[in-house]
Amino acid sequence: MTRTNEQLTAAGLVLGGLLLVYWTVIASLIDAWSTDDNYSHGFFIVPLAAFFAWERRRAFAAAPVQPSVVGLLLVGVSLAMLVAGLLGAELFLSRVSIIGALGGALLFLFGWQHLRVMLFPLAFMLLMVPLPALIFNKIAFPLQLLASRVGEYSISSMDIPILREGNVLILANATLEVAEACSGIRSLVSLFTLGIVFGYFVDRRPWVRAVIALSAIPVAILANGLRVASAGVAAHNFGAAGVEGLFHEFSGWVVFIIAFLMMLGIQRLLQRFVPPPVPHLQPTEAASI
């Protein structure tokens, strides 16, 4: 058996072992993606990470194999996080330790250069892990208030009487509450993920990719504020019944599409005003006659 086959066999055995160890954690992740709309995008993360890893296969194969014992230490720390998470019912710790264990196994079997090649796919997998409830709530509540303020300003700019009390908008015909589901955190998480993937495919410059991904934050806030404003206008004209049922669900999709178009516009502006450098071509020698 050649050295390459030995390494692949060892990698397959380690991967199978990690799969057995983390089976219950993986099952809980899939359940979270199925039941929590804030993280339903998790189903797309692993296939995309696998695609990003596959794109790097030549660079991975070309890197020199220099196994590091530090990887074994990283695997041990990740397994300790898994045990601590299971004993303390802390799902975030146990789930994020999957990525640490994969990175540690990669480092132990192949070395630092291989880990560097696969760093982006591994880091991308962090998006599949739901945030702890404490952090989630710390983000969601300010977003609720911000969406309420943007909605209040937009509605009042159309000369519609409105009064805001915290995250509650009071109109003449209805009272609207910007609940956690309407805070925009769902679209923020989804747009941030989409921004990373979109930037990856449309531009090779790291700083442009970062700008496109980070643009998801203001875009999601603005788009969600416009959604709240549209609900306020509908409630003003049709009462509370005008913002329930189909309108509520349909407006979410419309706003998400508008938000993506905003991100597309930002990417086009970057490409127009800061175009990527044209690769320098060596002049060809004149053909002899």
| Mean pLDDT rating | 84
Number of domains: 2
Q: Rg, please?
A: 24 Å
Percentage of residues in strands: under 5%
- The topology string of helices and strands comes to HHHHHHHHHEEEHHHH
For the secondary structure, the number of strands is 3
- Please estimate the helix content: over 70%
End-to-end gap: 54 Å
Low-confidence stretches: 285-289
Major sheet description: 3 strands, antiparallel
* Class computed from helices, strands and strand pairing: mainly alpha
Number of helices: 13
**Inertia-based shape:** elongated
Strands in their spatial order, largest beta sheet: 1-2-3
Walkthrough of the structure:
There is one protein chain. This protein is mainly alpha-helical. It has two domains: 3-129, no CATH class; 134-273, no CATH class. 70% of the residues lie in helices and 3% in strands. The chain is built from 13 helices and three strands, in the order αααααααααβββαααα. The protein has helices spanning 3-21, 23-35, 42-55, 57-62, 70-87, 91-109, 112-117, 119-124, 133-156, 185-202, 206-214, 216-238, 246-273; strands spanning 163-165, 168-170, 175-177. The protein has a three-stranded antiparallel beta sheet, with helices on one face. A hairpin with a 4-residue loop joins strand 2 and strand 3 (175-177). The relative contact order is 0.09. Mean pLDDT is 84; it is low at 285-289.
